[in-house]
């Protein structure tokens, strides 16, 4: 099983700032089959990024993903108030599919 | 717009079987993989398993001995059964669709989730 570790656990930032979230895998993620989700309180997760760097339909271009192998990054270039949420990475190249523990973004 | 809706009992007794159904509307059930994912209150996400529309399944080894996922294409539904439940199975249960027809695909459409509590 591929174990995903996310850091930091919590990011306290201000609107307009840049957020950098990290996801590290215990072994190489096959073909960069790595996704990022946003989950707001009381809602289901929402797919943001797939294939490590491709934005899902309707996702604003302030969200970008990068990385390969075992190290991946989600960057939010300019935080908007609605970006307050928990962000999860997930690998889907190996079974079982696994998720990271999440990074929470809240605003100062 | 594809919509997924979970249904089933919100309370299950310990040692009994948890049964949920996901109804898919606004799109076909064929050609996609359909997953169950759960999230204990205040915690992270755990993939339970998936089924292809034709019936092939893949389960998380941590739950494999207790899980069965089935599909009914005539009703555009798929279902989850989890046997011998304990309090550790208390969670919000989500159904979700694969983003593409590929086996290697993230989840793009999700149900709203249903809270299942295991308690006597």
What can you tell me about this protein's structure?
- The complex is a heterodimer of chains A (108) and B (120).
- With 108 residues, chain A is an all-beta fold.
- Helix content of chain A is 0%, strand content 50%.
- In chain A, strands 2, 4, 5, 6, 9, 10 and 11 form a 7-stranded mixed sheet that branches. Chain A has a 4-stranded antiparallel sheet with strand order 1-3-8-7, with no helix packed on it.
- Chain A is globular and about 35 Å long.
- Chain A starts with a strand and ends with a strand.
- Chain B contains no helices and 11 strands.
- Chain B has strands at 3-7, 11-12, 18-25, 33-39, 46-52, 57-59, 67-72, 77-82, 91-98, 107-110, 114-118.
- In chain B, the strands form 2 sheets. In chain B, strands 2, 4, 5, 6, 9, 10 and 11 form a 7-stranded mixed sheet that branches. In chain B, strands 1-3-8-7 form a 4-stranded antiparallel sheet, with no helix packed on it.
- In chain B, a hairpin with an 8-residue loop joins β9 (91-98) and β10 (107-110).
- Chain B is globular.
- The chains are: A mainly beta (108), B mainly beta (120).
Q: Any key phrases for this structure?
A:
heterodimer; A: 108 residues; mainly beta; 4-stranded antiparallel β-sheet; 11 strands; 0% helix; 50% strand; B: 120 residues; 51% strand; globular
**Which stretches of chain B are low in confidence, meaning pLDDT under 50 for 5 or more residues running?**
none
The SSE order of chain B reads EEEEEEEEEEE
Query: Which of globular, elongated, flat, extended, rod-shaped describes the shape of chain B?
Result: globular
Number of strands of chain B: 11
- H/I helix tally of chain A: 0
- Rounded mean pLDDT of chain A is 97
Radius of gyration of chain A (Å): 13 Å
The structural class of chain B is mainly beta
Element pattern of chain A in H and E: EEEEEEEEEEE
Please describe the biggest sheet of chain B, giving its number of strands, its sense, and whether it closes into a barrel: 7 strands, mixed
Structural class designation of chain A: mainly beta
Distance between the termini of chain B: 39 Å
What characterizes the major β-sheet of chain A?
A: 7 strands, mixed
Low-confidence stretches of chain A: none
Number of strands of chain A: 11
DSSP helix count of chain B? 0
């Amino acid at each position: 099983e591929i174990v995903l570790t996310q850091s930091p656990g919590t990011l306290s930032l201000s609107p307009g700032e840049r957020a950098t979230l990290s996801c590290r895998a215990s072994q190489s993620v096959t073909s960069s089959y790595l996704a990022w989700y946003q989950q707001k309180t009381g809602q289901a997760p929402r797919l943001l990024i797939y294939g490590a760097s491709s934005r899902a339909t309707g996702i604003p271009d302030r969200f970008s993903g990068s990385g390969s192998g075992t190290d991946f990054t989600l960057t939010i270039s300019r935080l908007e108030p609605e970006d307050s949420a928990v962000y999860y990475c997930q690998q889907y190249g190996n079974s079982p599919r696994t998720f990271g523990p999440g990074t929470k973004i809240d605003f100062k | 717009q594809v919509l997924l809706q979970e249904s089933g009992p919100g309370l299950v007794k310990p040692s009994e079987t948890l049964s949920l159904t996901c109804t898919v509307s606004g799109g076909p059930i064929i050609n996609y993989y359909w997953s169950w994912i759960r999230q204990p209150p205040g915690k992270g996400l755990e993939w339970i398993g998936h089924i292809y529309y034709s019936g092939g399944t893949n389960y998380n080894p941590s739950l494999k001995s207790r899980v069965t996922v089935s599909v009914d294409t005539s009703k555009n539904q798929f279902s989850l059964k989890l046997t011998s439940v304990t309090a550790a199975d208390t969670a919000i249960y989500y159904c979700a669709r694969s983003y593409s027809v590929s086996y290697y695909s993230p989840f793009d459409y999700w149900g709203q989730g249903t809270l299942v509590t295991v308690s006597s």
